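Today's session is about reading a structure prediction critically. Students often jump straight to the picture, but the first step is always the sequence itself: look for stretches that repeat, for charged clusters, for runs of hydrophobic residues. Only then move on to the predicted structure, which in these notes is written as discrete structure tokens rather than atom positions. Here is the chain we will use throughout the hour.
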Amino acid sequence: MDAINVKIRDGKVANRPIYVAMAVTVEGTRDILGIWAGDGGEGAKHWLQVFTELKNRGVEDVLMLVCDGLKGLPDAVETVWPRTVVQTCIVPLIRNSIRYCACQDWAQVAGDLKPVYTAPSEAAATEQFLEFSVKWGTKYPAVIKLWSDAWAEMVPFLSFDVEIRKVICSTNAIESVNARIRKAVRARGHFPSEAAALKCVYMALMSLDPTGKGRHRWTMRWKAPLNAFQIAFDGRLTPTDQR
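Below is the predicted structure for this chain, in token form.
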């Protein structure tokens, strides 16, 4: 689940988020589940409506949901799919950490954070984070708070193999989709209404992978993670009627 900002004229031109939900199916294919416009202040009630809609449309179960720290989302997804693991995207977490630091410390802070999110286990990550906190806590307490607040949603991917982590610890998969959307949005400047913006995003999504070659590469990329998920999530990848 990720968001892109578009300019919509509603009295005055302002940035508004459009949320995109992309799923990896049990066959390893990519499926855009929906798009929703927001005002930037979405909370648990908004996400509860979104997830309830998806469930009513046939999404029976969600193993992991990767997002970028969207407020209220973990609580809402737990209500609809109680067994879903929420994973915070690591890349924006690092990027947001750097914003709190002086430019001369960017490289060092990023380097000291790497042992945390590449640790072999949650226990090792905790130990590395404590060392990071001792070194930088006095100078950059906001960075420590940022990671502490996101910790529960940051560590789930550490239970998986390093190769598998690459495809589940970030929203890179949906970022490639968003790049196509941004290209279409920027070509039009701003939109006269929310409906016009949604139509533009929809048309951009419909133009993805016209040859089908991207779908094949995508499926092969997800074979290893799906096999690991089948074990880690106790067979939940297999539909009930096939067990």
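Discussion point for the tutorial: The beta strands are 2-10, 12-24, 30-37, 64-67, 85-88, 190-191.
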